[in-house]
Structure to design on (541 residues):
């Protein structure tokens, strides 16, 4: 688990990208990590079915915050239907090394919230699919 | 009191403490406030029941059924001795939560009326808060809270006013999040004069402090077995006999009846009136053995040991405060049980717990089932180390070194 906390993870934790709020989000969602009670909110600006801008907010552990921060960079320019199809693989590719099974929900919380915003209803847990 | 054993000698009775982790580390178990480890004697009691005399109780006429009934009721007698109660006042439940709910439904629905107040504290575990929210909703009563200061010490200046019109005082003996010990010897006489019925959530009290329910003069004392060396799935409600006699049954079914006709039932005597269905026989027997183990150790010794460990921990970790360690709760080990809640720099409690885990150190991280308290204090989460009879100074040294490792990993 200690090999998870690499420099780029700590950088995203301490300097999260796309952190804050959009003035006029087209879609948004918010959810809670049942393990720790930490929350993540995702706001999307959508034009012609494509994510043009994104912001996330919330507070939590390095895993959930860094994972959400890295994800936001990838969401920009994605088609909504592709966001809806994202699996936990993207999270594992981004931050996967060293995550223990007990912390997978932390890592996939941001993805779950982004997918919920994209499809307009609560998405399932990516780590359980 | 036989206070001659060292924590190291006590730890020898707990087989799990001698199994290395998957990384080959010594297990440093600092989460006894969540659940305690079990001594071999308790494990043996379960195995012996299932291998030698597994049978249902209060029914069978054959030898092993008689032996099971005797062991089950003997365990009740051990608990009664342990807390200085009458055996008829010891009701088996699944855990402290079920014991509290039993009082909420059976006593509460009959005695709490619209406009009454239910007084609790800002420190409560959800188990001693949510049942009273439900009772208030059902009865039209209102909830009130004894405030706690920034260190988690209860503020009693306005206790008289808070108790005015209160039908019930529901208070935890020891805070699971901060370890604060409620000064029951001060609070109970005031609540008595105000005419309130008094329930104590003893889940974190009875494992760590000497408890004499008669001396405390409380009406109900609820606790779980698994935090006091016993198995999971068994707990106790102590209630004063007159109160229990007047209360209607909580759950209905077998064993809690004397005579059943198609249209009508006469209920059994105490304590069985509140024990519907086949009880958790094995675990009750195991809990009796756990109570004996603690009794032999001496609860005065247990308390002194934990106080000494907490004082050592506060001193051992103090140098880390200049590097961002924040320690919550009372700074005086005399005011708290063996619980240390903390955060370190900008490392989230869950990340801290994960890094400690790589060193074999088990701590709890999160809101500790006290979300309103965490919100009031402004802590999103804390890490919590909690101590018990098998912990020694070496475990606290390991914790301090583990926090140093977190500092290195997070480049604090």
């Amino acid at each position: 688990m200690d090999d998870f906390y690499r420099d780029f993870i700590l950088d995203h934790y301490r300097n999260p990208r796309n952190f804050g709020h959009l003035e006029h989000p087209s879609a948004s969602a918010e959810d809670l990590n049942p393990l720790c009670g930490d929350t993540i909110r995702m706001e999307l600006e959508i034009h012609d079915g494509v994510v043009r801008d994104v912001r996330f907010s919330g507070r939590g552990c390095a895993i959930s915050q860094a994972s959400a921060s890295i994800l936001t960079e990838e969401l920009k320019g994605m088609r909504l239907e592709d966001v809806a199809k994202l699996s936990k693989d993207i999270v594992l590719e981004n931050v996967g090394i060293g995550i223990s099974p007990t912390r997978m929900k932390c890592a996939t919380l941001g993805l779950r919230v982004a997918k919920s915003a994209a499809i307009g209803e609560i998405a399932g847990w990516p780590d359980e699919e | 009191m036989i206070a001659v054993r060292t924590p190291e000698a006590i730890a020898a009775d707990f087989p799990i403490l001698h199994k290395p982790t998957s990384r080959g580390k010594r297990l440093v178990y600092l989460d006894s406030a969540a659940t305690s480890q079990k001594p071999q004697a308790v494990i043996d009691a379960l195995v012996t029941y299932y291998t030698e005399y597994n049978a249902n109780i209060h029914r069978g006429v054959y030898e092993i059924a008689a032996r099971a009934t005797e062991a089950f009721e003997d365990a009740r007698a051990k608990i009664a001795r342990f807390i200085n109660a009458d055996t008829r006042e010891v009701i088996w439940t699944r855990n402290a939560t079920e014991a509290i709910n039993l009082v909420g439904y059976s006593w509460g629905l009959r005695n709490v009326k619209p406009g009454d107040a239910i007084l609790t504290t800002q420190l409560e575990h959800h188990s001693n808060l949510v049942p009273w929210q439900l009772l208030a909703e059902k009865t039209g009563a209102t909830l009130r809270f004894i405030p706690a200061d920034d260190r988690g010490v209860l503020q009693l200046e306005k206790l008289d006013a808070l108790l005015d019109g209160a039908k019930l005082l529901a208070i935890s003996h020891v805070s699971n999040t901060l370890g604060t010990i409620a000064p029951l010897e001060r609070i109970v006489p005031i609540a008595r004069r105000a005419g309130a019925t008094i329930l104590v959530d003893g889940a974190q009290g009875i494992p760590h402090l000497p408890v004499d329910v008669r001396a405390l003069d409380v009406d109900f004392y609820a606790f779980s077995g698994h935090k006091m060396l016993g198995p999971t799935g068994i707990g106790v409600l102590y209630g004063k006999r007159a109160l229990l006699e007047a209360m209607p049954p909580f759950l209905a079914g077998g064993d809690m009846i004397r005579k059943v006709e198609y249209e009508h039932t006469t209920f059994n005597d105490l304590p069985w009136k509140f024990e519907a269905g086949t009880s958790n026989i094995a675990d009750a027997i195991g809990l009796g053995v756990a109570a004996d183990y603690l009794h032999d150790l001496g609860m005065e010794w247990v308390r002194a040991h934990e106080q000494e460990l907490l004082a050592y921990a506060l001193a051992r970790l103090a140098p880390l405060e200049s590097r961002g360690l924040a320690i919550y709760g009372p700074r005086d080990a005399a005011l708290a049980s063996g619980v240390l809640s903390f955060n370190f720099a900008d490392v989230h409690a869950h990340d801290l717990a994960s890094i400690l885990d790589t060193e074999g150190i088990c701590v709890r991280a999160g809101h500790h089932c006290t979300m309103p308290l965490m919100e009031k204090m402004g802590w999103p989460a804390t890490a919590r180390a909690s101590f018990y009879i098998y912990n020694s100074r070496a475990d606290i040294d390991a914790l301090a070194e583990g926090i140093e490792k977190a500092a290195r990993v997070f480049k604090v």
User: Anything to note?
Assistant: Chain A touches chain B at residues 1-2, 4-5, 10, 14, 35-38, 59-63, 100, 103, 106 (CB under 8 Å). The longest helix of chain A spans residues 104-119.
